[in-house]
Description:
Elements: H1 2-29, H2 46-53, H3 55-87, H4 92-107, H5 110-123, H6 130-155, H7 158-166, H8 171-182, H9 184-200, H10 203-208, H11 216-225, H12 230-274
Domain ABC transmembrane type-1: 61-250
Family: Belongs to the binding-protein-dependent transport system permease family. CysTW subfamily.
Membrane topology: Multi-pass membrane protein
Amino acid sequence: MNKFFKFSNLYLWFMFAVLYLPIFYLIFYSFNAGGDMNSFTGFTLDHYTKVFGDTRLMIFILNTFILALLSALLATAIGTLGAIMIYYLRQKSKRQLVLNLNNILMVTPDVMIGASFLILFSLLAIQLGFFSVLLAHIAFNVPIVVLMVLPRLYEMNDTMVTAAQDLGANYFQVLTRVVLPSIASGIMAGFFMAFTYSLDDFAVTFFLAGNGFSTLSVEIYSRARRGISLEINAISTLMFIMSLILVIGYYFIQTGEQRRLNRMAKAQKGGRRRA
């Protein structure tokens, strides 16, 4: 058994190395004074200075964050209500059917989603741009939010809902004062996941961006096609740091929520003992 655990730990560290070494290699050469990634000739911040001095690139970064924020907010609202609807479906067969349809959207390739939306918007004569990309991002983020919120609903104490209804609370009050606070951690997790997916998306945005709108991922792709530039390394490094900050922020939010739940559980146990 000990040998198995040692092997599993070695395998885990090997997989982390395979995944993270290329990222650290990219970050390392973002500080290279030379113009390529063949040899490190000296430390410099010129590539980061060029990134922040590029007005066109700053517009794309702003577009990316506005798109990610709006799509995450709207997808979180829609996905949360959808998860609640799925949870309260009485027939198990219908609930399973809706979940299967939701899971199909999760595993559908981004290229297929982008192409299908392109065909749809072309048939509806919808101009490609910010609005088309926003709709597509909301569409592929909603299933993610549903999957993040549903487990919290299954962990929710249904007796609290029943008690609120017995005390005269209407459906809106039950939703806002009982259900949503109980699943707040799942909603927050869904928002962070949706924000991250939208921030990193390339394939769907590439299909639907049009001529007047673009995001950072599409711009990085177009620059990479023209040749190696260490400005791409600098942009990628900044995006990696942003993703890392989001992960750390989400970790602290989850930790604080878990501590709050533990305190509530201890308080309930103490009340039962005194009773």
